[in-house]
User: Fold these one by one.
Assistant:
Number 1:
Amino acid sequence: MTFEGTKTEADLKTLCEMLTYARPAGSRSEKKFINRFIRPLGAKADAYGNYILKIGDGPVCFSSHTDTVHKSGGKQRVTITTDYMMKLPMLSQSNCLGADDTSGVWLMCELIRAKVPGLYIFHREEEVGGTGSSYIAKRTPELFEQIKCVIALDRKGRHDVITHQGGARCCSGAFADSLISGLGIEHLAKSDGGTFTDSANYTGIVGECTNLCVGYYDQHSSKETLDAEFMAEMRDALIRLDQSKLVFERKAGDVDPDDWSWMDDGLYGSSYYRGGYKSYSYNKGTAVTKLDKGGWSALHDDDDVDDIWDAGHRIPDMETIVERNADAVTDILRDCGYDENSLMREIYDRLGTLNI
């Protein structure tokens, strides 16, 4: 198909062109991408290399990241199907499409062009530890003095408004509901199954921090695709969003007593996870139960996780955890840079055999 005849098609052509840039963190192609698509909008770099722009005095911060998990920088070919799905050509040598998070960058560029009020942060180095957002959280938190919520545009699929990242609450249910209502997109729903994106590093500074779905699938793999038609729908919904009707309920730094987390303070350079301590619990119905508040809330970084369990309660073995949390483990492996081929190779190299 062609991108000719309508404004939407012209905008989606720009999205397709953005996807041709393979952008490992700190690569020359990432810099070229920023120079071509982000700097002309007026965004300025901070001391770490995050690009920031503010429009008006609205309560919303929009977040995305400019790096991808490509193994090498440069240009790649991108194809689009008759049903507006963007993907790599069949014989492509690239290890991923890079819609994570080119989709979020494109959406933010579109919102800026539409002069939607907000603080816009194009983060660097999300894919290698969230160090760009960690820098802002630690060094320049004053950026968020008037900000009530951070909406990261970096979630897979077409359904999720994330309320928890790594098992820990990042926004209230009331805020998520108000965002879903305001966007008016069919099938959007709250999800507590988020892993990590930059907004997680701001939950100690900003009360409501979420991650919003932006239409990509099979991220961090050569099978990655992007639903460009959904992207256009999300773009239009975000432009129409009445920010004055968003509900801000969670307070910055709040810890939900029902939280569990597999991420320690500092794993992503984060000031967010427990503010310097760790807490753990497991799904109800398992043999492991969470201690009462007095038992786990004082666990500090130098304590062993076994110390939080009463006698007779044991942490499940690794195989059980993987089996019962297959979707989350899959996301973790992809966040670490594995796709199907590299994971099979890793298993074969270790064991000399492979069960498929």
Note: The chain has three domains: 7-245, 277-314, 316-356.
Number 2:
Amino acid sequence: MPRKKGMECVCGEIAKESHTNIEGYKVRSWKCKKCGEEYIDSSDAEFVLLASKTRKHPIKAKVGILGESYIIRIPKEIAELMHIAKGKVAKITLAGPNDILITVES
């Protein structure tokens, strides 16, 4: 018998894939139509927790120089969560007089 798509709920039904909003972030989830139980994707939940933590207490990083370039080190915790690895391409834009936006391509 083919498996149903989704996640098994505590009530025994299959929860359907969905999305929900947590602190302004769209996260993957599964919701059971029978009992209303909702399960949040663990990696998405981890991201929201770290994003919330860094909003309240920003991570400080020192600016260094390597050759003729300025560098800022990204903490391992953030790099692992965002799947940043050596060789990945990052786009850097100015977001304001004191703000830099870095987008890492997936």
Note: The longest strand covers residues 14-22.
Number 3:
Amino acid sequence: MIRQPSQDGAGHGDGQVPQSSGVDVAECQRRIGYVFRDPGLLVAAFTHASGAQHRLASNERLEFLGDAILGFLVCEMLYRTFPDSLEGDLTRIKSVVVSRETCSRISEQLRLIDFLIVGKGLAVNRPVPTSVLSDLFESLVAAIYLDGGMEAVRPLVVRMLGPEIEQVACGAQGSNHKSLLQQLAQKDFGVTPTYEVIEESGPDHSKSFHVSAQRLMLPVPLVAAILMGHAAAEPTPAARIMPWDVEALSKVPAVHATTERAVNGMKSFFFEGAEYKGKPTRVFAYYATPAGQPPDGGWPAVVCAHGGGGTAFPAWVAQWNKNGYAAISIDLEGHLPGGTHFGVPAGFPADQGHENAGPKRISWFGDIALPDQEQWFYHAVADVIRANSLLRSYPEINPDKIGLTGISWGGTIVSTVAGVDPRFAFVIPVYHGGYIHKHDMTPEQYGAYMRKWDPAAHLPHAKMPMLWVSGFNDPYPVDLLTRSAETAGGTSTICIRPFLIHGHGFGWEEVWEIGGFANSIVMGGPPMPRCERPRVDPQDGLVHAKVSGELKSAVVGFTTAAEWKNPALATIPCTITNGEVVASRPLPAGVTAFMINASGAGAWGDASVNSPVVWLNR
């Protein structure tokens, strides 16, 4: 909702909130993940010039400052993330990341428009211009900086623009069509094409070549699968490479007590991780159990794996404790907890390492050329498995009721762990799964990655129940998440929220289905409704899908886009009868992909229940 201006004109950075500002300060702070000491700054950031009593009361000055702060923080991130990149390359990435289009998109992801204060003219003329949304994000950056300093604003910028930097950096290969073809051939067929020049034209200084790619010799079953419109399994379980010594990781790791980053009511300690460059590593963790005595057999428990820019979060542990679970939250990048979010003790910098740290994540796969045991992915998976081994040694824990969840990059890590460590009772990836498609690896490196690290190689071995969670607005394409769900060897349930901000906190506080699903597996709770892969029935031409559990409503969501970029889906209403969802009319011409989007009922009232995405003619 776009707000009309307040009439009192107070509260712009003076510690006061205008009584009639109309801005829901609490909800806005929840979305951005920051609580203002001076909420007047927040209101000022959302006051467009058309809604201000005078120009100095608008967000124009904040936008001016925010533009500079944003540029500095992005430059700092690029400098640290890409130590081998030239200045020109960094400048090109920065120009996209801090562009009006990117800042506008971030405002849309956070739905900042809900709090925008504008005059009547702008409120009537929808949609709001891109420039206004872009200025809104920059003004917010400045307001947080003025309120809490650089350490307060840095986490927001890292959280929102970190994925943008990675996608832009990996997308730099997009104009190299030969490289892209080689990647696809290596990925899908395991071969590298050869080339024959058919024709060349033009002057010597600017030649144009017509080239034929040859020798994509495919096995007959794969050709048949392609002709039938079905994607071949990628890769098959037999093709995977197992770099971890699971037997060794299943042993109880040594624990080292520490007073670092202590939090009341929780244990903080290091446990021993995998060796890195010949030396054992230590992994920082927070651990706590619910209050009171454990139930017969011990507490159910959860291992929590953070995403990019994250660390061990006390608030994540507390959330699971509140739901009746013991929990351990671990740092996967060799850091001590820092920053200002999710219960981390105040006054410590983010990303601070320690002397026994393992490797940090470098961009997407900046360490792919290193030996396996020196790569971040190897250590992250190993650390999660060791956390499981540690929990299983505690007498207050029920070893048969230990689950695993991860957010963003943590979602990718736990998806791989699901196929490597069969001891987990359930696994819940949030936002990310497998089939990583954005990268800057060579074809050979990518082929090895898909067999060694990517969840696609390991998920066929995952037999435990899994819940896959995301939002239709998420940068990670929903079709890749549901493809990961279908690759898993056990039962997968899919939960795609209509809107879910990508970030820590949102990925555990906003999705009540996560706790409900865990309860259904280890606490005797009601099973979550589930929708199987839909199909077009050749008899009636309608989309059908088998479902389990009680549903209130369902639609077929479809798109006509060539690629799934989490589009706004058009829908067809469905009927629900005898465990089957049936569309009320056929799919229209031009549809490229579709899925079932349903809403639960009964104990699962309003739960988001979704089917896998089905691509036609693929």
Note: The first helix runs from residue 25 to 32.
